[in-house]
Amino acid sequence: MSTDAEEMSEDRRKYEFRKVIEELKEYEGSGTQLVTIYIPPDKQISDVVAHVTQEHSEASNIKSKQTRTNVQDALTSIKDRLRYFDTFPPDNGIVIFSGAVDAGGGQTDMVTRTLESPPEPIQSFRYHCDSNFLTQPLEDMLTDKGLFGLIVLDRREANVGWLKGKRVEPVKSASSLVPGKQRKGGQSAQRFARLRLEAIDNFYQEIAGMADDLFVPKRHEMDGILVGGPSPTKDEFLDGDYLHHELGDLVVGKFDVSYTDESGLHDLVDSAQEVLADQEVMKDKAEMEEFFENLHTGEEATYGFGPTRKNLMMGSVDRLLLSEDLRSDVVIYECPNGHEEYEVVDSRHGDPDHVCSECGEEAEKVDRDDVIDHLMSIAEQRGTETKFISTDFEKGEQLHDAFGGIAGILRYSTGV
């Protein structure tokens, strides 16, 4: 499979997860009767079954008969779902949601959803009972963007690691042999200062070596490097050009950080939130800048459902731009004379009446589909890349509000 195809498949998978999460967040239960289980990929299914069996037994102590019954029914449903898996979960793990949700009028419906292989590996086993399903860990996975290298250092120690989405991964550490500022007896001040500078230089070279080993192989995949530590240490390190020249170009920020152990990596990420937010949206900004530039020249740009769909069908769309906040359906109509037409409606609304624009006959609904699913299916068939655009910046908002959340950058001008 090509890289573009893999990216499109990932986009679709994340979108499907996003839709399921939004649905799950709408559910509410009475009391703590909605059960969520996060199962990491290295957790044996038999151990999970044993845990669920134990929870089922302990649920018999719940005083409320209704809550007791609902929790035990949810756990039984989860055990039934676990039978479909072998010794271990699939890649990245499994999340199972089950419980009696409020259906209105004092009624409840039993809901059980299984999410296999989420976008990121599940880090630890979690069993959770509440009046809502636990979706935050999955939401964090979907907002995870970017791969950043992390370096924290002072003249005593250094740590190097990764920021993968929102997850900090310490990888390498080093301690220095730099002597303190007070010289030992018998050494001249000049000789002591020279030896200390040599030790600092050697330590900076060691830190750069760790960073080069870790980051250089991934330099084309990285979104940037963050450097933290006290002043003037981090400035000396960066100004001294110790890093590989291609890594030096990737440094997007330096920050004052008090600690340089593994906790310092987390402090660095906390200090860099504004820069990280800007970096996340930069790619979206670049896509929208190109779209508006093409739109201004009147060439190689399309927007709105109808024109964009036509261009997709022609295979002329290079990148399909979809707003992350787009929540619409497309209703497909057919009139007695065989004309097929499409109407975009709010996903929360019903199907409107439709009169064929070609012959004036009343048309009947033949299908209804999620707009994003509909367009992405065509895009995948035509080798078109799909980009989801945030509304966290002005032109991203314009895509949603002024262009219906749908646009495209064309391979060539079509006049459509």
From TrEMBL:
Which organism encodes this protein?
Halobellus rarus
Q: Which GO terms describe its molecular function?
A: translation release factor activity, codon specific
* An annotated GO cellular component: cytoplasm
Q: Which Pfam families match?
A: eRF1_1, eRF1_2, eRF1_3
Q: Which PANTHER family match?
A: PEPTIDE CHAIN RELEASE FACTOR SUBUNIT 1 (PTHR10113)
NCBIfam families noted in UniProt: aRF1_eRF1 (TIGR03676)
Supply the alphabetized keyword list: Cytoplasm, Protein biosynthesis
Oligomeric and partner information = Heterodimer of two subunits, one of which binds GTP.
Q: Which gene encodes it?
A: prf1
What the entry lists under InterPro entries is as follows: eFR1_2_sf (IPR042226), eRF1_1_sf (IPR024049), eRF1_2 (IPR005141), eRF1_3 (IPR005142), eRF1_Pelota-like_N (IPR005140), Peptide_chain-rel_aRF1 (IPR020918), Peptide_chain-rel_eRF1/aRF1 (IPR004403), Ribosomal_eL30-like_sf (IPR029064)
Per its record, how is this protein called by name? Peptide chain release factor subunit 1
* Cited function: Directs the termination of nascent peptide synthesis (translation) in response to the termination codons UAA, UAG and UGA.
Domain eRF1/Pelota-like N-terminal: where? 8-143
Q: Which SMART domains match?
A: eRF1_1 (SM01194)
Q: Which family does it belong to?
A: Belongs to the eukaryotic release factor 1 family.
Q: Where in the cell is it found?
A: Cytoplasm
